[in-house]
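Hi P.,

Sorry for the delay on this. The queue was packed all week, but I finally got your sequence through. Input first:
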Amino acid sequence: MPQSFPLRVLLIEDSALLAGRLIELVKRLPDVDLIDTVGTEADALDRISAGSPDVLILDLHLRAGSGFGVLRSLARSTRPRPKIIVLTNFGLPEYRREAESFGVEAFLDKAREYFRLPSLLTGFAKEHAVQVPH
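Then the structure:
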């Protein structure tokens, strides 16, 4: 029987309300496993280092630090970088450009593009299933 290797997702979000909604959304997706939820830059970097997630859902404004701090740290790292979906209330063009300069896979405005998250994660899960040796 083939073993399934779900897509490992780390949620980096400081709003408990939104984190709760995102947790419920991700739990409903097949072949996607939410490994943790953190709300600060330091906790995000610790969890990325410890858990090697496949995908980050990254808010830009955190309780301490920022999503851009996470992106800068990942850019300096020699380890393979997870796919990154920026999900923010601050969909400003300059924020989008800066995030894209770090090579994020998607930049979503929470108010206008939240609905795209399930299809992005499902697509990443399908790619992951093909890439992971069985």
